[in-house]
Amino acid sequence: MIRCAYRGDTKIEWDSQGGSYRYSLDPDRPSWQELDAEDVSVPSWASEHFKGDVAELKERAMAQESSREVDATTEERLKDLGYM
Question: CA 71 → CA 62, 63, 74, 80, distances in Å?
Fold first, then answer.
């Protein structure tokens, strides 16, 4: 699970595997970003937009049983993308 928050020319990204990153953005170049730092502390202005800790939510979701079935091709694709 990945979360992102934006403020001005800064993007903060953090994930359920413990990674956290800060990027610089340029409003004159859409879709452009540059990695500034890794293992950053997620500021309160970024996390206040989300309910619950990202790792906790992932664990809770993984613990729930699902009654939905997916075919083998879809399951392999989800594994390749890191969802399973």
Answer: 19, 21, 5, 14
Can you give the residue range of the structural domain that contains 34? 2-80
* pTM of the shown model: 0.65
Burial class (CB in 10 A: 0-12, 13-18, 19+), 57: middle
**In the numeric block, which tokens belong to residue 78?**
């989800």
As a whole number of angstroms, the distance between CA 35 and CA 38 comes to: 8
With contact defined as beta carbons under 8 Å apart, do 43 and 21 qualify?
Answer: no
pLDDT in tens, 21-74: 999 999 899 899 999 999 999 999 998 888 777 777 777 777 776 667 888 998
Q: Which residues lie closer than 8 Å to 36 by C-beta, 6 or more apart?
A: 22, 23, 24
Count structural domains, the chain. 1
